[in-house]
């Protein structure tokens, strides 16, 4: 009975205002309910007649949705007993499980990664030095300045604007403007009801996690990934499975195995460009990933916070391939324009948007209207995309300057792959050089960077560091690269020196 009531509620909401055929809506919602774990394996579905009567639609329509799901293996029909959610597929032999797909139940304190990042950020704040830590946009560039023009104009026209607040879903004009922006940027027709505007992409991820997952559930993410997401997963007691990746993100066959074995409830991807590596998945990789997502109905977050800063190719957002409405796209204007802005958006399909909207109204409740209204005015202006393009050109030269300076060291050139997008260089270090040790040595030279293991779901003192080129001019980047080369050489010399105590 409870299943019937919950399903009816979801379906009524999904049908409201939708132009999709009703049997498709029924199939999609049941698929999503299974993917999000609301319907568990083995659970019995209400009869087609009960569901049809409760919804005021024909039994044939419901039966056709059930048949589709039975054909795809999601539901199992048993004559005389009813229709059930399919059992999880049998786990392949242990040897077939890729070692990197082991599950990690975070033992660390929630927030441990943010604390480590904060340590390096405050080292930068504490004095002069070269900031390669942040990965945040440069406020001197056109996008931040363009925003400020709209902010100041609004303030002049409406001196009372700073006192205004919005409710949890976001300012209406901002939701409308972001819907237009999403259509242009992600190639997806989007209505304002599918868009939420709030303070932070991280906060939206938090609300998604709280809405769709429970402690002990499995989330799949690529590795390395955004450290803030890993902190959140630890906070909510989620289990984390990683997928072996290459520059374009998760390898499809490995992802398929992980989906089959662990039956995760959430796939979290850092979008295009990926953070921290800066890779941009091509269209064929995205199609493969989307096909897997559709076959294993799972809620997917595409965290596309830096997508305007893709340099050498065109990004294919997962969202643009999302026929079933499973993908929630997060984008942060604070990442695109400047970190202190605190405006971000979540874009979801109508079915998911309703559930997210309810959660946002309870968890977030209110926000500051003025920054959202200024973003709305700027995004809708004819300068916005041009300003982003101007910043992209500058970031591209900074990326190239840093990469060229690092490549002067043959030792580092081997692990150097300039990022296809994003604001940071992910640098793999020569064998035996740890990212943490290198950051300490760089700190002594007043150059600040982030150790790679902050981004690794399975901490392993990774031989990598992240160097952000976003906020620095080319000469400073060359000086930073020289410090990295020098500190790596120093660590290698130290490693080769036999400690005195071991001579006997
Ligand atoms: C991939 C990714 N998502 C989300 C965020 C956080 O965005 P916001 O500042 O809007 O919360 C960051 C910030 O570093 C990020 O790198």
Tell me, rounded to a whole number, the average pLDDT: 89
> What is the terminal separation in angstroms?
76 Å
Tell me the helix content.
40-55%
What global shape is seen?
globular
The total count of helices amounts to 18
Strand adjacency order, main sheet: 3-8-7-11-12-13-14-6
Bound compounds, each kind once, are:
pyridoxal-5'-phosphate
Strand content: 5-15%
DSSP strand tally: 19
Give the low-pLDDT segments. 89-102, 498-504
Summing up helix and strand content along with how strands pair, one would put the structural category as alpha/beta
Largest sheet: 8 strands, mixed
Instruction: Report the C-alpha radius of gyration, rounded.
Output: 24 Å
Would you mind describing this structure in some detail?
There is one protein chain. Strand 7, helix 9 and strand 8 (239-243) form a beta-alpha-beta unit. This protein has helices at residues 2-15, 22-35, 48-55, 59-71, 112-126, 142-157, 172-186, 201-212, 227-235, 252-262, 283-295, 333-336, 350-363, 369-380, 384-406, 410-413, 435-444, 474-496; strands spanning 75-78, 82-85, 103-104, 130-131, 165-167, 195-198, 218-222, 239-243, 245-246, 249-250, 266-269, 299-303, 327-332, 344-347, 366-368, 424-428, 447-448, 450-451, 464-468. It contains 18 helices and 19 strands. Helix 8 crosses helix 13 (350-363) and helix 15 (384-406) packs parallel to helix 18. The model is unreliable at 89-102 and 498-504 (pLDDT under 50). The relative contact order is 0.13. With 504 residues, it is α/β, with parallel strands linked by helices. The strands form six sheets. Strands 3-8-7-11-12-13-14-6 form an eight-stranded mixed sheet, sandwiched between helices. Strands 16-19-18 form a three-stranded antiparallel sheet, with helices on one face. It is globular and about 75 Å long. The chain binds pyridoxal-5'-phosphate (PLP).
């Amino acid at each position: 009975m409870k299943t019937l009531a919950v399903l009816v509620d979801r379906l009524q909401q999904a049908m409201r205002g939708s132009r999709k055929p009703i049997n498709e809506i029924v199939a999609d919602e049941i698929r999503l309910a299974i993917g999000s774990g609301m319907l568990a394996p083995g659970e019995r579905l209400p009869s087609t007649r009960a569901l049809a009567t409760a919804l005021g639609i024909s039994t044939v329509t419901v039966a056709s949705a059930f048949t589709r799901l039975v054909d795809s293996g999601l539901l199992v029909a048993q004559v005389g007993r009813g229709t059930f959610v399919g059992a999880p597929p049998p786990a392949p032999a242990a040897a077939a499980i890729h070692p990197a797909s082991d599950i990690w139940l975070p033992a660390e304190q929630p927030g441990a990664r943010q604390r480590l990042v904060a340590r390096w950020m405050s080292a930068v704040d504490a004095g002069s030095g070269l900031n390669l830590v942040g990965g945040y946009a440069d406020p001197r560039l056109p996008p931040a300045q363009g925003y400020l023009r709209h902010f100041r104009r609004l303030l002049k026209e409406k001196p009372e604007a700073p006192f205004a607040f919005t409710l949890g879903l976001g300012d209406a004009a901002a939701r409308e403007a972001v819907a237009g922006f999403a259509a242009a940027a992600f190639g997806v027709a989007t209505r304002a009801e599918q868009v939420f505007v709030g303070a932070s992409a991280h906060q939206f991820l938090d609300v998604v996690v709280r809405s769709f997952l429970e402690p002990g559930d499995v989330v799949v993410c690529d590795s390395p990934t955004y450290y803030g997401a890993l902190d959140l997963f630890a906070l909510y007691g989620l289990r984390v499975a990683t997928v072996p990746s290459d520059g374009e993100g998760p390898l499809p066959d490995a992802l398929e195995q992980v989906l089959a074995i662990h039956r995760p409830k959430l796939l979290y991807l850092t979008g295009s460009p990926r953070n921290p590596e800066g890779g941009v998945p091509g269209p064929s990789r995205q199609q493969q990933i989307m096909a897997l997502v559709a076959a294993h109905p799972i809620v997917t977050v595409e965290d596309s916070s830096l997508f305007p800063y893709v340099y050498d190719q065109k990004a294919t957002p997962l969202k643009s391939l999302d026929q079933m409405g499973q993908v929630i796209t997060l984008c942060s204007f604070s990442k695109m324009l400047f970190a202190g802005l605190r405006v971000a958006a979540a874009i979801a399909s109508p079915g998911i948007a309703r559930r997210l909207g309810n959660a946002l109204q309870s968890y977030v409740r209110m926000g500051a209207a003025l920054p959202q209204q200024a973003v709305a005015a700027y995004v809708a202006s004819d300068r916005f995309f041009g300003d982003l393009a101007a910043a992209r050109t500058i970031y591209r030269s900074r990326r190239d300057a840093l990469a060229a300076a690092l490549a002067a060291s043959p030792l580092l050139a081997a692990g150097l792959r300039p990022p296809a997008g994003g604001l940071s260089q992910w640098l793999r270090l020569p064998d035996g050089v740890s990212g943490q040790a290198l950051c300490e040595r760089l700190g002594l030279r007043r150059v600040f960077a982030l150790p790679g293991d902050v981004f690794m779901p399975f901490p392993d003192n990774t031989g990598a560091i992240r160097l952000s080129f976003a906020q620095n001019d080319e000469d400073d980047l060359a000086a930073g690269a020289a410090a990295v080369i020098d500190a790596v050489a120093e660590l290698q010399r130290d490693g080769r020196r036999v400690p005195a105590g071991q001579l006997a």
